[in-house]
């Protein structure tokens, strides 16, 4: 089994910049990357849920990743989300990511036809992971959206028997008992990346060392503070900061959630991400004004 280095700290799940006509705004990725590099963020997770992967073509996904790797220029890690409902598309995306120097591969479960068993899911992933055999492969667990709620510890334990580069999981779920079982598995053999930003302190207290999140994009200082406070054992500070993150997440939920509401916040902080692709609806001007007022009320710092 390859011994991959482990991630630490914040991995931001990127939004996909789009133009007024809904095309990909590739040119905006460079300023977005420069902004990321100016923060404490350690890496990006490209074309995930936040990046609207299921609304992108394979060609777009490849080109977006190329832009990120070029724009990052080694300043931070670039992880490629290769998941889709079509195994062949995922194989193509993973192979391309490896060929252009991505740091690692993440893959969500297929969710139109759902895997019925742990072995079905492992069988779906195996050729995708094998298309990028030198890179760490992470199972992106998010039952709330996929409806696939198979035991993650078993996916890891059984999966590694046929997927040598299975490094761990990106765990976007509230089941912290299951998370701890994954962290403890096989003497800590797997990397568990924390998912839900609003409960980061819980994941870190369970032993996670890195997280992948969408709200890291626009309040990185809050999460950087949480990582540091938890490292120092300062739970009071960590909890105060987590409350601030929760206040922000409450706001984005009012505007359609982490993707639609989060993309609007990116526009407000000056990273021109545009609107989401259908079926996520564009924000009306009045919504932008109300969102800005809600954020001002929280003392949100515009970059
Ligand atoms: C669906 C989604 O985007 N999940 C993210 C991580 O996995 C989180 O960053 C959430 O967006 C965040 O915790 C807000 O709920
Ligand atoms: C948040 C996250 O991990 C994603 O957008 O895929």
Automatic annotation (TrEMBL):
Q: Could you cite one Gene Ontology molecular function of this protein? A: lyase activity
Q: One Pfam family of this protein, by short name?
A: DHDPS
Q: Which SUPFAM superfamilies match?
A: Aldolase (SSF51569)
What InterPro entries does the entry give?
Aldolase_TIM, DapA-like, Schiff_base-form_aldolases_CS
GO CC annotation terms, alphabetical: cytoplasm
What family is this protein classified in? Belongs to the DapA family.
- Organism source for this protein? Muribaculum intestinale
Q: Which PANTHER family match?
A: DIHYDRODIPICOLINATE SYNTHASE, N-ACETYLNEURAMINATE LYASE
Q: What protein name does the entry list? A: N-acetylneuraminate lyase
Q: Where located?
A: Cytoplasm
Q: Which residues form the active site?
A: 140, 170
Keyword Membrane among record annotations? no
The residues the record assigns to binding pyruvate are 50, 212
Q: Which UniProt keywords apply?
A: Carbohydrate metabolism, Cytoplasm, Lyase, Schiff base
Q: Which Gene3D superfamilies does the record cross-reference, listed alphabetically?
A: Aldolase class I
């Amino acid at each position: 089994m390859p011994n991959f280095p482990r991630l630490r700290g914040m991995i931001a799940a990127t939004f996909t910049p789009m133009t007024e006509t809904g095309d990909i705004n590739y040119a905006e990725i460079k300023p977005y990357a420069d902004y990321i590099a100016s923060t404490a963020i350690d890496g990006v997770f490209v074309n995930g849920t936040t990046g609207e992967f299921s609304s992108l073509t394979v060609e777009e996904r490849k080109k977006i990743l190329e832009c990120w790797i070029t724009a990052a220029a080694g300043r931070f890690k670039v992880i490629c989300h290769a998941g889709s409902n079509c195994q062949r598309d995922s194989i193509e995306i993973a192979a391309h990511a490896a060929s252009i120097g991505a740091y690692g591969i993440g893959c969500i479960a297929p969710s139109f036809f759902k895997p019925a068993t742990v072995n079905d899911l492992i069988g779906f992933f195996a050729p995708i992971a094998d298309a990028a055999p030198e890179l760490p492969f992470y199972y992106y667990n998010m039952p709330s959206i996929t409806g696939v709620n198979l035991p993650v510890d078993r996916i890891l334990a059984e999966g590694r028997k046929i997927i040598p580069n299975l490094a761990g999981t990106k765990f976007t779920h509230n089941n912290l008992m299951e998370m701890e079982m994954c962290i403890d598995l096989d003497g800590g053999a797997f990397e568990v990346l924390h998912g839900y930003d609003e409960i980061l302190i819980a994941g870190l207290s369970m032993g996670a060392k890195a997280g992948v999140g969408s709200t890291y994009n626009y309040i990185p200082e809050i999460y950087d503070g949480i990582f540091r406070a938890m490292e120092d054992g300062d739970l009071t500070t960590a909890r105060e900061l987590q409350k601030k993150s929760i206040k922000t997440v409450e706001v984005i939920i009012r505007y359609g959630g982490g993707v639609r509401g989060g993309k609007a916040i990116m526009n407000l902080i000056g990273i021109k991400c545009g609107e989401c692709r259908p079926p996520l609806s564009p924000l009306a001007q009045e919504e932008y004004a109300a969102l800005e007022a809600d954020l001002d009320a929280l003392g949100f710092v515009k970059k």
